[in-house]
Fold:
Amino acid sequence: MLEKAYHWLSGYVEFQVEGDGARFFTVAAKRGAAFWGFARAESKAVARVKPRSYRALRPLCKRCGVRLRVRRRGGLPFQLRRLRKRPGLLAGAALAAGLFWFLSGFVWGVEFTGCEKIPVNQLAQCAREQGVYLGAKKRELAPRSAANRILNEMPQLSWVSVNTGGCFVQVAVKEGAAKPEPEKSQELSNMVAVREGEVVHIEAQQGRPEVKLGDVVVKGQLLIAGLYQEVPDPYGPQPDRLYQVAGAARGKVLAKTYREFTVQVEDSVQETQEAGREVRLWAEIFGLRLPLGLWSRTEGETQSWREERRASLLGVELPLALEWETLVRLERRERKLTKEQMKTAALLKLRETQRTALGEGGSVLHEELSFTFAEGRCMVSARCRCQENIGEIQVISTN
Structure:
């Protein structure tokens, strides 16, 4: 194998001898010529020799009465000589090598793994902001730093790794529950009622309930005590000393309450309508966005969305894309409402007010509505029987 490689690098001439080949090879060998690759073709001797040695064999032909005929010239020197006659081929090879070197400096593929609840588009957008995207320059890519920044930007992730392999990047993530904010459970507190009501449900997570189901409580009344003293069983043995508990009161107390709500709406509303639209075309080449046109700056309120069509080859996306951006110009116009429309708008506003006031888990059990129209307004009043959490934490100061 090494001998063949040596002969190919130095070049060779394959020739055949017409005449007394035995005498010719004997005389040439005495003169220092080195032959190899002996064979016979058409009853004639065939051999190979170095190009310089072949030129030195010509004076021996007449002495030995033979005639040499070249069959083949091979090896690197002869191939380079052929290429010199075809400069376009050399230029194409150099251009291809330069283009390959240039393109290998970009990211040609980004893969995201581990997304279960988090949308891939959200992770891709966050990764793009940290420099990890299709067409990014490899020399500007810092995998470890990018992974740390992605982890900081997305608290719903517990682990992020950015792995590179050639011109491809893999962003592997692991989702985790968001860390709850630490609760100050060591502070002394009670839970008191924020409004009057009839207790229908008690859930004391910490502390001792001070009310019972069916009790009617007033505003400020103690519901769950965080600071309390032991109450011994009157039918059991009495302890020598009663223990005391000092901690935080946590839980939920649901009660039936009475509330009144009043909201009003105007007889006209401001609506946003489309005043025109414009489509802008962009080309993305290796992460660089180039506008395909000239546009003036748009004044006023606008709305826009983008559509992207990315080139692909054999199922692999390429860092080449066309992007359509649709820009819609908006303008505000006033629209008059009928009485029915005003009632509908007032009811929607009332429901939103009720949801905000009653909080999570609160509901309206019964209500009486009354509508009033005056001076271009619609007013709705509601008298409601509600069920809501009336407990509120009250911190006990120890100073």
User: Anything to note?
Assistant: The chain has a mean pLDDT of 86. Residues 339-358 form the longest helix (20 residues).
